[in-house]
Write a sequence for this structure.
């Protein structure tokens, strides 16, 4: 039986992009179904009733949800090269730990910088810098997180290589100075140089417009909370 | 070399309890280091600088953090019986998905019931019930989540078997009706009947006192926000 691989994604989701990259790196043919998150399809709701979110990978009719879980599924299902996760349990635990850290502490702190201003933004900057330092340390002496090839943790943290510079552009703040984060800066370059990675980035101008609107909405809401009409 | 296995935990953490159970089920000898979360030890901060949280598993001097990641590490390191995760990639992805769902959507919705009152509590109850229904469906026709033996997802959701009834007692609300959640109710019974599980529960009276204080603090803070002094 021919394999059926379908990916439900949106054009902009950094979580879904992880799966696009992983499938392309593994050389898996797949069909893409673009979702509109303001008008989700009945199929998406059927395949991910608990969250109704992208990405969803549909493999021979069976859904797999949550991007980090899908990455592991891809690596365990199509075991040929390149491997995504390291084999050693300790290195594997470390990759999972930093992926989790990226999705929670790091993303939250950077998001707080992006959706605030003044003193609140300064505090969020300090937290983001602490978090980025921890990531920078993981990359000392390495091209990618697990050596010389792109793997699970590179894909999990891949959003940093594109999204941070978009957010920086919108708020005119520099988060990742090359001097402050030399290893992270080199990694961003190495990661972005890979043709599989670069061909999948969403259009930058559309991303800037989308995130500019999001920031404006956040700031309007936050002003309304302080000074109700 | 004799293996050195140390577990940093607190007496009450449901996350740390997952690791105690897993090590005991696998028959791994370990030393417990009890932490006071109001006065964390320098060792805990050294081993988990990113979060400074328990549990931390120290295996031959190497730290592994985050309870769900530690469970996978234990299963990959001590591969003898009982296995914790299923072998099939799809079943494994499903276990990871529901563990993640438990730690985020389910726990948050139940916590919102516990730390609110009135209309807000009613809304949180409705969300919790929807989430619990999804868990109940996973248990149809099964003794445990992956068949006849306790595994990863049982340990990940093990807090439900004890903590929910403690929260219910404090707020005098019944979340898990046997009629409404027949499979979940049976699972709670099956899980709690296991001697390894039951011997590790923290003392119920201390838990009630601890969580009663937490709820009081939440409600006081929430009243202060509405009516500042």
């Amino acid at each position: 039986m021919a394999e059926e691989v379908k990916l439900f994604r949106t054009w902009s989701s950094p979580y879904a992009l992880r799966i696009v990259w992983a499938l392309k790196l593994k050389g898996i043919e797949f069909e893409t179904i673009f979702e509109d998150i303001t008008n989700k399809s009945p199929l998406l709701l059927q395949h991910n009733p608990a969250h109704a979110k992208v990405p969803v990978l549909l493999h021979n009719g069976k859904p797999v949800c949550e991007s980090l879980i899908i990455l592991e599924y891809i690596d365990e299902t199509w075991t040929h090269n390149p491997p995504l996760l390291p084999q050693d349990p300790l290195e594997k635990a470390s990759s999972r730990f930093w992926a989790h850290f990226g999705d929670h502490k790091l993303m939250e702190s950077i998001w707080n910088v992006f959706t605030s201003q003044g003193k609140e933004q300064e505090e969020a900057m300090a937290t983001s810098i602490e978090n980025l330092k921890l990531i920078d340390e993981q990359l000392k002496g390495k091209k990618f997180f697990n050596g010389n090839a792109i793997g699970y943790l590179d894909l999990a943290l891949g959003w940093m290589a594109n999204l941070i510079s978009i957010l920086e552009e919108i708020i005119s703040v520099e988060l990742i100075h090359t001097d402050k984060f030399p290893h992270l800066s080199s990694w961003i370059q190495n990661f972005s140089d890979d043709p599989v990675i670069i061909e999948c980035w969403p259009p930058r101008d559309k991303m800037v417009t989308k995130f500019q609107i999001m920031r404006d909405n956040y700031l309007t809401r936050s002003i309304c909370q302080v000074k109700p009409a």
Q: What stands out?
A: The beta strands of chain A are 5-9, 31-34, 56-59, 62-65. The first helix of chain A runs from residue 14 to 26. Chain A touches chain B through 24 residues (CB under 8 Å). The two ends of chain A are 62 Å apart (CA to CA).
